[in-house]
Each structure stands twice: as structure tokens, then as C-alpha cells.
Amino acid sequence: ARVAVVVPAAGRGERLGGGVPKALRPLGGRPMLVHAVQALAAADLVSQIVVAAPPTLVEVVSRLLGPDVRVLAGGAERVDSVRGALRALDDDIRVVLVHDAARPLTPPSLVDAVAAAVLGGQPAVIPVLPVADTVKEVDAQGRVLRTPTRDGLRAVQTPQGFRREVLEAAYANSDDGPAVTDDAGLVERLGVPVTTIPGAEEAFKVTRPIDLVFAEALLARRPL
Ligand code: CTP
Ligand code: MG
Questions:
Q1: Which of 16, 24, 99, 100 to mutate to test the pocket of ligand 1 (most atoms within 8 A of CB)?
Q2: ipTM reported for the complex, 2 dp
Q3: Closest CA to 155 of 135, 137, 171, 180
Q4: CATH 3.50.50.60: does it fit domain 2-128+156-221?
Q5: Which of 11, 16, 80, 153 is placed for a possible disulfide with 131 were both Cys, Cβ 3.0 to 4.6 Å?
Q6: Contact present, 195 and 122 (Cβ < 8 Å)
Q7: Is the CB–ligand 1 distance for residue 208 below 6 Å?
Q8: Whose atoms come closest to the Cα of 182: which ligand?
Q9: Is 50:6 a contact under the CB 8 Å cutoff?
Q10: Domain boundaries defined on the chain
Q11: What's the CA-to-centroid distance between 13 and ligand 2, angstroms?
Q12: What is the per-residue pLDDT across 98-153, written as a single tens digit (0 to 9) for each?
């Protein structure tokens, strides 16, 4: 069964700032998206990569990533970018991973672990880590409603992996909106069981300026 990875990379990176789309923001001299795609290409189980790029930068990104990577225009919200990229999958793809361009230091071993779990029979698999901070549920005024026990909480990373038909059904069913920040959330609504595997610290998402400082430091310490 062949495995594809869809890479949403069309976001503007408003929280990071800096005036360039986040996927093209340099990290160790190369765009974040290039790091992310190289890690995917280095995974043993990946056979197709489809990238949703900022609409005005499709040509630029395509040249950057080379002929083996399919690049198309992303949409207004992350869900739109993923939905568009799903249409570009090869016919014989049976497993689809979705991976944020904004997680440039994700280890190839995590990509393979997610793919292997889906190939092994799980319909939906997500990498997670324990939560370090206590998390509160609050109302619109910031008043605390509840404090869930930290032991029962996990922070979710990507790549998230799915049987192709499960992810396609989830996206056919989705009502979009900026509220959807994670693919597994759409799959959960179908009543399909989602299982977790251990994530990787290096798979953190570059979201704010301090994350870029951390990423640069980690990259500088990497063995070549
Ligand atoms: N993404 C996308 N299309 C969008 C919005 C986001 O492909 N319309 C992608 C981003 O490029 C990123 C991933 O989804 O790789 C995770 O989103 P996030 O970290 O929120 O990135 P941005 O939306 O770019 O950042 P921000 O929310 O701060 O603007
Ligand atoms: Mg965003």
C-alpha cells in the first residue's frame, strides 16, 4: 500500500510575523518548508509528497522542491489547503499523512512510525506528547470554568496518518471554519477511532518568534 504525505504550507504566518509566508522563512539558511519536505523524503515509507503553497508562490515553491514534489495552490484556511491537496493524490495511494510545513525539524523516524501504525491496521493515528503546563478551560471573559486533569491531556503534533478513505470522508463531511486546526478532529466527528503514538520533541511547531530561536539552536547542534 503506497503512502502519501500532504503538506499544508499556504499559511501567512501571522503569529511569527516577519513579512514572508512562514513556509519560506529561512532556518539555517534554507526555507522551513525545504527542511520539512527533506525529512518526509528521507522517511522509508513515503512514496508521494503533495504541497499546498501560498497561491502566488506556487512556481517559486515548485522550483525550490524539485520535480519529485507536486505543488499546488493552497486555500484560505488550513482545511481548504488540505482538501485541495487530497485531490492531487495518485490513484494507488492507500494511506495519507498530513504534515505541517511549520514543523521543520520533525524526525523521519516519526513519519515512518505514523505510517507504519496506519499500515498495521489503525484507521487514524496521531503523535502526541504529555502537556507540560496545566491547561484551563475558560469562558469568553477569561473566567475559569474547569481544570482538566493534566494526566488525561496530550499535545498533538503532525504528521497525522489516516486510511485514505477515512480522511477523504472526513473532509467531505467538514463544514470548514477557522476552528478546525487538526485533521484528526474531523475524523473523530465520523466516530472513527483515533489512536495515539509517542510524538517527538523536535516535531514542535514553529508558531511564534521564540520558536524560531529554539529551532535555530537545535539545527546548529544537529550532527551533519
Ligand atoms: N496552512 C495552510 N493554509 C492555510 C493556513 C495554514 O496550508 N490557509 C498551513 C501553514 O502553512 C502551516 C500549517 O497549516 O504549515 C499549520 O498552520 P499554522 O501554524 O497556524 O500556520 P499559519 O496559519 O501560517 O500561521 P498563523 O496562524 O500564525 O498565521
Ligand atoms: Mg494558522
A1: 100
A2: 0.99
A3: 135
A4: no
A5: 153
A6: yes
A7: no
A8: 1
A9: yes
A10: 2-128+156-221
A11: 7
A12: 999 999 999 999 999 999 999 999 999 999 999 999 999 999 999 999 999 999 99
